[in-house]
UniProtKB/TrEMBL annotation:
This is Guanylate cyclase domain-containing protein. Keywords: Membrane, Transmembrane, Transmembrane helix. It comes from Blepharisma stoltei. It comes from the Eukaryota. SUPFAM superfamilies: Nucleotide cyclase (SSF55073). The keyword Transmembrane helix applies. The chain crosses the membrane at residues 30-48, 60-83, 202-220. InterPro entries: Nucleotide_cyclase.
Length: 774
């Protein structure tokens, strides 16, 4: 007996050689081009089938090619799982599986038996006596979208093209099994891996978007075939003469003439999709239900007529739509005469299917282009932004680690890295200052200047001008704009913060559209100018005025919406300090004056003015500032048991535009006007004049134009009316206020006093002191 000589080589090497040969064949050009062509065919094959012919005669050829493609995909998955390392259960393995499964709905020999197991018929254009009445609804519309979404799964095959044309370029990250080796990889390797991972994420994101997009889109529902069939049913039934039959009586007469009947059939046949078969009561045949074979111009397609679609019908079943109408009285089929009272209409939706196929081809090309451009772009960006800079930094650090004396040779590179670090630190500092604000940064800076974090310490108390500004109807604006509300409030914040800083103020906090602003207590006039500028800039800024035409705003507020801001100002003490714990800390501002300003915000609507100033604030204004304000009454705050006078500065919605022309023969020029800067009247010579608030009340265009809008005689009349109101002489007050409203129409304080007197029935409340309670 001959003995088999032992194999002198390694069996493992033999297996590796076989595996390598098979892998080379799979990755070779022949197999790659072949599978790429197969993938392209399954991407466009079903759409080509729909577009190539309106008949179903040659569909079986396409179905055979789909079966061949399915077999090739299964073989490919099997061979790759055996011979390609790290393929099984990897990213492309699951993409291949999904691509293969998505082929099944395109093969009727596999699809139909599967649905029959669950008693579901995907495409059925046959009419049955027990069929339920059908019309298009939103529910049916979403069902169609779900089917469309399933068909979009085939777009995952685009990713197979990406795989085929990038074979051999992917870095096999899985080959590195030792984690200690990963730390020693060069930046170029990691950059390529980052590019590959990013591209895969884009692939997944695009595919998920395509799958979910049909369900998220809104569409129209065409109920014309159903309601048209209903009209034809009752019109045709009007010709019946049997009083025992459903819907008939001895007084029944034809609704239309014979020619009108045929005209209605023609209208129905051309209203939506092409009509193939019509089964309704025939008005010209005593209302008996049956086939109506013709109209004036329409003729029944006999090969597709009948309750059961004939086998010789050349139209595809999935391109036939059956519409059913049954009178609502006959739903339970218990009323006499309802036997077999059911109308049918069958339409050809082939043109719609072909249109959808054209769109699918365009979408497929578009998505393929996105994936191709994205993969190339990410690779280039990774090389430019990640690989090169990190490689340089890696070389510098490595050189310094090996020999610190080489720092002189790398001084240029080191300087670059230091500038980057310095810039990064500056950005972090800027971010913190923007987060905390000017005062908040000082508070937090004091806190973190200590060696240890100490939150058990007293706050800092100081006297200041305190103002709260809020957008009117902010809750409704949030409801209208929703996600866009952040853009809206940030545009307003830009103006509020800029005007505040321009006039010596500090923006401390922003809570749901309520801005807390402070000034030094000797800057009341600056504060008033700042608030005036905020109102003017809001009504002048083009990006804010654009909300007049925002569809979401127009729906809620109409075409004349203007951003209105309510403002209050008071002078009092405020405590500043860090609030929180070692887990979360932020600068805080606590003061009863803040609560007072919040109370005044609620009184803005009562007095019908956008700005309320307390008597304490008014007393600290300079002479010109006081002259620009007017007193509008007294209030008593119940919680504080405090009575104070209220003042306002009359603001208008129409503000002057900035003048960029030369002023005073070129001595002054507004080249780049900043937000909140004065807009100087053209006739004023301001050479050598400093911009102080006292001067601005004389020559600033915003302030002067707003004051000019108030008739000179109005102030005296209003003052008399206010005195009569507060003294309890309401009869005279009403007459005086009526006279004032003739001079200054729709003046808020005048209307407010009149409404208050009307609410009291023109009777002075008991204990009246001339002050309203809020």
């Amino acid at each position: 007996m001959n003995k088999v000589a032992p194999y002198d080589g390694s069996y493992r090497e033999f297996q590796e050689g076989i595996r390598k040969k098979v892998e080379d064949i799979i990755d070779g050009k022949v197999v790659t081009v072949c599978m790429a062509c197969v993938t392209m065919w399954v991407l466009f094959g079903d759409d080509i089938r729909t577009l190539s012919s309106k008949k179903k005669d040659n569909d079986y050829i396409f179905f055979i090619t789909y079966e061949i493609c399915l077999a090739l995909f299964l073989i490919e998955i099997f061979m790759n799982s055996i011979f390609i390392p790290h393929y099984k259960f990897a990213f492309f393995f699951w993409l291949d599986v999904v691509a293969t499964i998505s082929l099944l709905p395109d093969i009727p020999g596999i699809r139909d038996p599967f649905f029959n197991l669950f008693g579901v018929t995907l495409y059925d254009a046959d009419a049955h006596f027990d069929s339920d009445p059908v019309r298009n609804t939103k529910k049916l519309d979403y069902t169609d979208r779900a089917i469309q979404m399933i068909r979009y799964v085939r777009l995952v095959r685009i990713v197979k093209l990406y795989k085929y044309f990038t074979k051999g370029t992917d870095t096999k990250f899985e080959d590195v099994e030792d984690e200690s080796k990963i730390d020693k990889m060069d930046p170029e390797y990691l950059g390529k891996k980052l590019s590959d991972v990013t591209t895969r994420r884009v692939i997944i994101g695009v595919l998920l978007m395509l799958l979910l997009l049909p369900l998220l889109q809104s569409g129209t529902v065409d109920n014309a075939p159903y309601f048209g069939l209903q009209t034809l049913f009752w019109t045709g039934r009007s010709g019946c003469t049997d009083p025992k039959a459903f819907g008939c009586s001895v007084t029944t007469t034809n609704y239309v003439s014979d020619e009108g009947w045929y005209y209605m059939i023609d209208w129905y046949a051309n209203a939506s999709y092409p009509l193939l078969w019509l089964y309704i009561p025939d008005m010209l045949n005593e209302g008996f239900i049956g086939n109506v074979s013709h109209g004036l111009t329409w003729t029944e397609v006999s090969s597709c007529a009948g309750k059961t679609v004939p086998s010789d019908c050349s139209h595809r079943v999935e391109e036939l739509e059956l519409v059913i109408y049954t009178p609502i009285q006959c739903y339970n089929r218990s009323i006499h005469g309802c036997e077999e009272i059911q109308a049918y209409a069958r339409f050809d939706t082939g043109e719609h299917s072909r249109s959808q196929s054209q769109n699918n081809i365009i979408i497929t090309f578009f998505v393929g282009a996105i994936l191709a451009v994205a993969s190339v772009t990410f690779a280039q960006d990774t090389q430019k932004i990640v690989i090169k800079p990190v490689t340089k930094m890696h070389n510098v650090i490595k050189s310094l680690a090996e020999d610190p004396l080489k720092i002189s040779e790398e001084v240029t590179e080191a300087d670059i890295k230091e500038s980057i670090l310095e810039e990064t630190i500056n950005k972090i500092g800027t971010l913190l200052q923007m987060t905390f604000g000017q005062k908040g940064s000082a508070v937090m800076g004091t806190l973190f200047a200590e060696p240890e974090l100490d939150l058990v310490k007293l706050g800092n108390k100081e006297r200041a001008v305190i103002s709260l500004c809020t957008v009117q109807d902010f809750a409704s604006i949030i409801d209208c704009l929703q996600e866009e509300v952040l853009v809206f409030i940030n545009k307003i914040a830009r103006i509020v913060h800029t005007c505040t800083t321009r006039w010596s103020g500090t923006a401390c906090n922003n809570d749901l559209g309520v801005f807390l602003i402070t000034w030094p207590d000797n800057k009341a006039s600056d504060a008033l100018v700042s608030l005036i500028k905020v109102s003017a800039e809001l009504h002048r800024a083009t990006d804010i005025m654009a909300y007049k035409s925002n569809p979401k705003i127009v729906t809620k507020f109409g075409d004349n919406y203007l951003v209105d801001i309510a403002m209050t100002a008071h002078i009092g003490w405020i405590i500043q300090g860090p609030l929180g714990s070692a887990i979360k800390v932020a600068p805080g501002y606590i003061s009863p004056s803040i609560d007072l300003c919040k109370k005044l915000l609620t009184a803005v609507d009562e007095f019908r003015v956008p700005m309320l100033l307390t008597e304490e604030f008014y007393g600290n204004l300079d002479e010109k500032g006081q002259g620009a304000c007017r007193r509008i009454g007294n209030i008593t705050i119940q919680e504080l048991s405090e009575t104070m006078g209220l003042y306002t500065f009359d603001l208008t919605d129409e503000v002057p535009l900035p003048d960029h022309r030369r002023v005073a023969e070129g001595q002054f020029e507004l080249e780049k006007r900043r937000i909140g800067d004065p807009i100087i009247l053209n006739e004023i010579d301001i050479e050598g004049l400093e911009f102080t608030p006292e001067h601005l009340f004389l020559f600033d265009n915003d302030i002067v134009m707003m004051q000019r809008s108030i008739p000179s005689q109005f102030q005296d009349i209003f003052k008399k009316g206010l005195e009569a109101f507060e003294s309890g002489n309401w009869t005279d007050a009403k007459q005086i206020l009526d006279e004032a409203l003739k001079i200054k129409v729709a003046d808020g304080p005048c209307i407010s006093m009149q409404e208050f007197m009307e609410r009291c029935g023109m009777k002075i409340p008991e204990g009246w002191t001339g002050s309203r309670v809020i």
